[in-house]
């Protein structure tokens, strides 16, 4: 995650480079370090350096790192001729390189040559079945082609080997949610929370899935995870506060005990007050919509 300090430095360098103040290489290095997406800028300023013999020679071995960075950015921008030339330069310098082989597969993907890309990736995996980058490319490619069931199969096989890859679990959960396979999505969220219990987004995602599944037990559990999200964010997650309102309303409507109803209503009222305070401060023009929504839940403060 990019910090405010890093974002500020990136913006400063970007403004400097765009206005002809120099520092293009430092800017490109920072983009690579922070793993942010600035593909059009990378192509523009990267080519400026690569097309200048003096600047390119001054990079030393980093010249080839820049070729790779520009190649990937060019594919992202669909500047396929630029990407092709960068990959050619790398092939000439590093014949038989597996890393360059990945770029070749990615270029085939960018061209829409799915069958050829699959062959290229399969060949690379025969030599090294534990190549994470290639395995992830295959998953992404199947997803892009609309072959979701195949992408799920590849993800399952990938996670059998790389069980600690949190990004893969998150991707898995999102795919299952898109397919309305909420029980499977819940399992993925549980894995994420077990691995990184202090990440509020995982608690929120799990709460959303549980609420969607419905039923008394799931709603109760969803409320707990909305509450933990609020705790982890210091009360700054509006979505989680609204989730508390939804859960409390559902629980109160299902409960046969008057005492439980009063307890749920008290909690929901506190959440409603917090929401109204938040909306008054950040989006006062939307306050009537919130009030209407809370009334429909019988939670208006």
UniProtKB/TrEMBL annotation:
Originating species: Kalanchoe fedtschenkoi (Lavender scallops)
Major site of localization recorded for this protein: endoplasmic reticulum
Keywords: Endoplasmic reticulum, Membrane, Repeat, TPR repeat
Protein name (record): ER membrane protein complex subunit 2
InterPro entries hit by this protein: EMC2-like, TPR-like_helical_dom_sf, TPR_EMC2
Subcellular location, record wording: Endoplasmic reticulum membrane
Biological function: Part of the endoplasmic reticulum membrane protein complex (EMC) that enables the energy-independent insertion into endoplasmic reticulum membranes of newly synthesized membrane proteins.
Lineage: Eukaryota, Viridiplantae, Streptophyta, Embryophyta, Tracheophyta
Membrane topology field: Peripheral membrane protein
Coiled coil spans: none
Assembly description: Component of the ER membrane protein complex (EMC).
Residues of the EMC2 TPR-like domain: 100-209
GO CC, one annotated term: EMC complex
Pfam families: TPR_EMC2
Family indicated by similarity: Belongs to the EMC2 family.
PANTHER family: TETRATRICOPEPTIDE REPEAT PROTEIN (PTHR12760)
């Amino acid at each position: 995650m990019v910090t405010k300090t890093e974002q500020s430095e990136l913006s400063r360098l970007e403004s400097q480079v765009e206005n002809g103040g120099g520092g293009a290489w430092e800017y490109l290095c920072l983009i690579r370090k922070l793993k942010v997406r600035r593909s059009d800028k990378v192509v523009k300023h990267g080519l400026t350096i690569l097309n200048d013999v003096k600047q390119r020679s001054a990079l030393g071995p980093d010249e080839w790192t820049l070729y790779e960075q520009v190649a990937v950015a060019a594919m992202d921008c669909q500047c396929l001729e630029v990407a092709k030339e960068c990959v050619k330069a790398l092939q000439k310098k590093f014949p038989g390189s597996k890393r360059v082989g990945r770029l070749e597969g990615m270029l085939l993907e960018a061209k829409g040559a799915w069958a050829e890309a699959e062959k290229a990736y399969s060949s690379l995996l025969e030599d090294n079945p534990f190549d994470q980058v290639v395995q992830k490319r295959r998953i992404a490619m199947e997803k892009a082609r609309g072959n979701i069931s195949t992408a799920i199969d590849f993800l399952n096989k990938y996670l059998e080997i790389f069980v600690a890859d949190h990004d893969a679990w998150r991707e898995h959960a999102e795919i299952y949610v898109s397919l309305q396979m909420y029980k499977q999505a819940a399992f993925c969220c549980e894995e994420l929370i077990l691995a990184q219990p202090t990440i509020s987004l995982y608690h929120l995602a799990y709460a959303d899935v549980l609420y969607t599944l419905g039923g008394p037990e799931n709603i109760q559990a969803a409320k707990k995870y909305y509450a933990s999200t609020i705790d982890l964010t210091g009360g700054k997650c509006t979505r989680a506060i609204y989730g508390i309102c939804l859960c409390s309303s559902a629980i109160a409507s299902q409960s046969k005990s008057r005492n439980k109803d009063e307890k749920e209503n008290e909690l929901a009222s506190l959440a409603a007050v917090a929401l109204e305070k938040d909306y008054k401060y950040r989006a006062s023009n939307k306050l009537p919509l919130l009030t209407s929504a809370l009334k429909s839940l019988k939670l208006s403060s």
